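Methods: example folding runs. The two proteins below were folded one after another, and each record is reproduced exactly as written to the output file, sequence line first and structure-token line second.
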Amino acid sequence: MRDLSDILAEVNVKIAAAAKKSGRRAEDVEIIAVTKTHSEDVVREAWEAGLRIVGENKVQEAAWKQPLSVSGPDWHLIGHLQKNKVRPALELFSCLHSVDSVALIERIQRVAEELGARPSILLEVNMSGERSKSGMRPEDAAAAVEASLRCPNLTLEGFMTMAPFTPQEKIEQTRPVFAGLRELRDAMEEEFNACFPRLSMGMSGDYEIAIEEGATWVRLGTVLFGERPKAKLVRAIDAGDAGESGEGGGAFDRILD
């Protein structure tokens, strides 16, 4: 298998070229290393290669992987967040990319206040309209922004979206999704007289177009680490007393190679 540093060098060249097309610098774009179903060793490899943000899709996977991993990376939740997982999520992640409703915003604020946490959040917007995609409707974004700005423990950094899966020969078709999120962000900044600097959009197959359309965080897994290993589930770690809320306790499923 190729060395990650060599792969990363090639990816960084593409990031720089895409950023230049949008009148920005390569330094304006950060990679989130998506380690879904990979072991803690991959987190260490990413850190040693210079990647500083790790993205996980599931709270329960981060719960066992993070304590075994190298210290240092900033951990972001990029997958769907259920309301009953808010408490453990806030104990594991500094940034939540997938906040998709006013009700979830209010839940995060209540738990963050209890914990004394001050997470960053992104509002996930379903720009493609696909039913299989999570995220709020674009027309619901203003209400979510307003709710977020009322929450003293939360910092609304920006917005997140996912484009539909698209074959490489038709990848240009993803552009309107990314451009649409940028335009929505710009409209929200004007409406609320605020700055939302982060656009989390673009994955291994479409990150160059996403950057051309303004992405500041790209979520890369396969292009860096190869195909995800086949996973099997075993009962692994008791996360401790769940408390009255019922959150955070019980044995999590550990995902192994």
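Second run, written to the same file directly after the first:
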Amino acid sequence: MAESDRTEYVTRADSTPLDDLTGTAFAHLDVRTLVSDARQGSEKVMVGRTVYPGGGGTHEHHLHPDAEEVVIVMSGRGWHRVGDKYYAIGPGDVVFVPVNTAHSAGSIGPEEMVILWVLGGVPSLERAGYQSVPEIPGIPTG
């Protein structure tokens, strides 16, 4: 895409349509793609926002064989599992997930948790790759 064809340099999550994730492990979450190859012609990065509902909203444990991921917590509280370690996360926290590393996340408490996520090195989920992996029991709840 030529630079002159890019018309969207500022993206607002609240006016971006929900991603259609019907039939996936993320269908119950509010996920919106904010920056991607399809949207702005990005070549090396993808950015999205996910809202986890309060009361323990989560998604399946997975990895991306071809992308790093950075998660930035905007509001709410939760946990993020990277490999076999769990971390309590809250507003302002940044989580780094190396390439090909299993990870998952979820909210804790009644408040929804809002995160921004960045896939590094790829402009789309398809290019990042996605593999569901078995999860070890014991998700923290408080």
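Comment on the second run: The chain has two helices and ten strands.
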